[in-house]
Amino acid sequence: MTEGDPVQIEITDELDLHTFQPREVGELLVDYLGECQKRGILNVRVIHGKGTGALRVGVHEKLAKMEIVAAITWPASAQTGGWGATWAQLKAL
């Protein structure tokens, strides 16, 4: 793999954004959640961390604009990440 090559990530019901730059999150959310929807994964936990809240705000703004998102739940339950994670419920195809 060389610099600039796409990063392959496993598609599951969890997207951990800790390793991504804030500028990468918008397109990543669209692509990742689109793949989840195609695979029938309709409840996805997006881990954005607590930090300053900037990443969370960006994630929530993007989720609010996505037609495939039926609902979001934030904060997640204490067992699934609390203030550092958001659940996105996707519409079925």
Q: What this model shows, in words?
A:
With 93 residues, the protein is α+β, with helices and mostly antiparallel strands. The protein has one domain (14-90): 2-Layer Sandwich (Ribosomal Protein S8, Chain: A, domain 1), CATH 3.30.1370. Helices cover 28% and strands 20% of the residues. The protein has 2 helices and 4 strands. Strand 1 (14-16), helix 1 (25-38) and strand 2 form a beta-alpha-beta unit. The N and C termini lie far apart (34 Å).
Topology at a glance:
Layout: E1 14-16, H1 25-38, E2 43-47, H2 54-65, E3 69-73, E4 85-90
Parallel strand pairs: 1-2
Antiparallel strand pairs: 2-4, 3-4
Helix pairs in contact: 1-2
Strand ordering within the main sheet: 1-2-4-3
- The helix count comes to 2
Give the SSE string.
Answer: EHEHEE
Named CATH topology: Ribosomal Protein S8, Chain: A, domain 1
**Biggest sheet layout:** 4 strands, mixed
Helix content: 25-40%
Distance between the termini: 34 Å
- Tally of structural domains: 1
Count of beta strands: 4
Mean pLDDT: 91
> What best-fitting shape do the alpha-carbon axes yield?
globular
Strand residues, percent:
15-25%
